[in-house]
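Homework help thread (please don't just give me the answer)

Our assignment gives two proteins as sequence + structure token strings and asks us to describe the second one. The first is just a warm-up. Here they are:
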Amino acid sequence: MTSTVRYRPQNMIVLEKDLSRQESVPLLEAMKKYRDKKCTPFDVPGHKYGRGLPELSDYFGEDALAYDFNSMKPLDILSNPTSVIMEAESLLAEAYGADSGFFVVNGTSSAVKSMIMAACRPNDKILVPRNAHKSVLNGLIGSGAIPIYLQPEFDLELGMFHGVNTEYVKTMIDKNLNAKAILLINPTYYGAVSQLKEIAKYAHSKNMLVLVDEAHGAHLSFHGDLPPSGIECGADMVAISMHKTGGSLTQSSALLSRNERVKPQLIRKYLNLNGTTSASYLLMGSLDAARRNLAINGYEAVNRAVEIARYGRNKINEIEGLYALGSELIGKRGVYGFDETKLVINTKGIGLTGFELYDTLRDRYNIQVELGDTYNLLAIVSLGDTYESMEVLIEALKDIGNNKRRIPQQITHPKNVGTLEVAMCPREAFYAETEKVLFKQSVGRISGESIMAYPPGIPIVTPGEVITEEVVKYALHLKKNKALITDIQDVSLRFIDVTK
């Protein structure tokens, strides 16, 4: 494997040649060179630098539109890169310590689907956590793989799922030795990580591929106080959302791989199957820039985010009734490490649900956080945050805390719907003939569609699972609390499609 820059203080190997290479932004440089030529365009996109739709220039600026290019020889092509994109992807792999890197402009959902399809054929088994993102389900449908669901540890007090227990996972691997792969989340939406390195080593000993959904961990490699990344732990393929915590534009992501067990040509094949033939150069250029920033300035930038999160956590914990979770969770079942940039605030003590606090912060204080659930609020702290912006959040929470309800209401939490029976594989149920039934009367039927709240986009029930009373109760609980219900056709939750 190519020598790379390492960022962890306990394993610091800084190579000047790599730092010099990481200064380069080959794709961005090619884009600027082409723009400066002021070529007369008779290709797509049709707005022709914004002239065809002036409103775009008014909103986004002429410079942004001047970089909205089509694939061409000077700028390479994402589906089969041979020049500047290939070089930019090589630098991405080097920055993360991977053998291969791939730009993804359809979001990490596309990368996750591609990983699963590269690992599994129809009717192959794959072990996946039940709290995985909807993209994992879509990968199961696309590949025809059969999921063996791993039950993550549920924290009843905090009302959230953590990671998976290591010994339990080993047991599940031993019970399914014909499985082709295991997929793990690193970290969860709430910041918990599983014992990824040990699980990966054990899975490899049983000839299983290790896939990692690292949508919320693009920053992990660049700071020694944070949990290790999937690539560091030996995973074969890792999907990362550079736009979430790495600084690139929304929808720009990446897939990283080690080539010992998975050939990069196979990965490219499935990325092309799931991807677009009109890749956005604005998104790819932002990936090139974000990679350089993390490689050169990553430790300082991530360290600032960690320190701001710690400051906010300490100040919020001084507010009566609020509890900002931290590294004290490490040691709980399913919590082998914690990403401190996830500022999770438990709201039970002030008698508000996370849903209510989420709406209050937006509507009364003009603060947009990542999500609210029954018990918790999640604020993402990343490269662009400042102490000033954190103070805005702290002062708003102080104001809300000072005006809290005198007698906190009792908040019940039906979130843990338990282990659901998988009666049909997701692909079979997705394509099955269905009928509409009243959702409240659907208990015992096989679901033909998914129900989830977004964010975080984790299915409550998936195609092929048997609907239970707990599923109905929790879904209606979310609806009552004005969560954004997605994927089910009838978002009012009056009807649901079930298999005939």
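The one we have to describe:
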Amino acid sequence: MAISDRFGLPIAACISSASPAEVTLVDETLDSGFLDVEPEVLIGDKAYDSDGLDEHLLQTRGITMIAPNRINRKVKTQDGRGLRRYVRRWKVERLFAWLQSFRRLTTRWEWHAENYLGFLRLGCICILLRHL
């Protein structure tokens, strides 16, 4: 999981197994941030469309969550104004493409999760240093 800013530069990154839902990993990802301040707005895909997550982030952290509604949702919560920012989601995907340029991250050779997390953070540092 990773969070990027509006320029596509990494703000936070963490690793976890593939089995838990992404909604449950948002707090862990925010806690592993590289900066002292947290973002005011998070933009996620349809997997983050959850009323519980929206309320939790707003009450505990003061973060507004923008995610398009799922197709089968009975009560629509997005009116479209916040979704105008969703078109810039390609910048997050670009961050993942930049991280995939590091061979050590593309092919996971590490047996221990701590080593892989270290290389993930090193890749984020390299990306940040390139754009300074």
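TA reply:
I won't write it for you, but here's a hint about the kind of observation we're looking for: Strands lie at 2-4, 10-13, 41-43, 64-66.
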